[in-house]
Amino acid sequence: MKKIILVSLVLLVASTALPAASPPVRIKDISHILEARDNQLMGFGLVIGLRNSGDKSQTGFTQQALSNLLSRMGVIPQSVDFRSRNVAAVMVSATLPPFVRSGQKLDVTVSSVGDATSLQGGTLLVTPLQGVDNQVYAVAQGSLLVGVEPTAPTNVPYVRSQQLTAGRIPDGALVEKEVPVALEGKTSLTIVLNDPDFTTADRVIGAIRRAGYDATARDAATVVVGLSGEEIVPLISRLENLTVTPDTIAKVVVNERTGTIVIGENVVLSPVAVSFGDLEVVIGDVALYSDGSGGDDTSSDNRFRATTSAKLNKKEGKFTVVPASPTLAVLSRALNAVGASPRDVVAILQAMKKAGAIKAEMEVI
Fold it and tell me: How distant is the alpha carbon of residue 315 from its chain centre?
């Protein structure tokens, strides 16, 4: 016995693609200035003050780093191996934004590199943060925020699922050296789109030219604006606040694990018929009963038999006719009308893509 729900999706492809319904956004929200870029910093450090949840004695680099630290502090380690479960070796990372000056603070992320079980309640010691050029640009130190209440019971599944070996320190790094950004004296300014797209780049060029500036595109992601001797800061501010409507590709993103489906507005469907079905079997609890008349005499021959119940649930099939339309809303209403679950919709969309009915890129995450 099988339930088959036949959904007829009669969708006509429009002669021309529908325009994107995206609202206008500022250029600064979809791009950045090439000359003003972020820089990544990283360093190796130690977290102390853990409650017997640090690295084990088998983690040699933790003990070596701790011995080197104690030696610099004037404490000479003895010949006996020094062991402590209150210390963990970590890697510290941060992002250095442009135009940050010496003395400003940065947020840092701290992650365990050993076999520590938790960094909850730990304190990061002074850790130099270096760039790719091996120069120290910031120094990090402070108490970690792991995100789990220290008094929460450990037998709660939600608490156990939290990540205890990584945390953050808000304003935990002090900038010691700035990265110079030279904008004065330049004859051009380069705008880089966060999501390269030829149509979006052309619209950015049109918006800049309408504002009275000379702009050309090198490729789908790079727009070059000529400078005519104006002050650089007011010019960048005017360019960043120009609005354009970015173009988006037709894309469908599905997550099979959670049943999440995200479908872009530009997705166009061809005529297609889809059917799906499932079988629901319900097994009842096992029931025991005695077949015999033993009464209270425990020596009598009592026979016990087991029985169970099973039933098959089948919902009534539905036939849904979708009016001709290339919009996504029609497909959504059709799938909801037949009671398809998110996981069923994921399977349907994958089959439609395989058949060539979905004119869009599909990404499964």
Answer: 38
Q: CB of 164 within 8 A of CB of 118?
A: yes
Write down the pTM of the prediction: 0.62
Segment-wise mean pLDDT, segments of 10 residues, the chain, 365 residues? 37 36 86 86 93 79 81 71 79 92 93 89 93 93 79 51 82 91 81 92 94 91 87 89 89 77 75 58 50 52 55 48 49 64 73 77 81
Residues in a beta bridge with 217 = 223
Cα 365 to chain centroid distance, Å, stands at 10
Could you give the residue ranges of the DSSP H alpha helices within 5-132?
60-72
Distance of CA 303 to CAs 121, 284, 290, Å?
A: 62, 22, 6
CA 202 from chain centre, in angstroms, equals 30
- The DSSP code sequence of 291-340 is ES--TT-TTS--EEEEE--EEEE-PPP--EEPPS---HHHHHHHHHHTT-
E strands present in 156-285: 166-175, 188-193, 215-217, 222-226, 243-244, 251-255, 260-263, 268-269, 272-278, 280-283
Pairing of strands 3-9, 320-321: parallel
3-state secondary structure of 44: strand
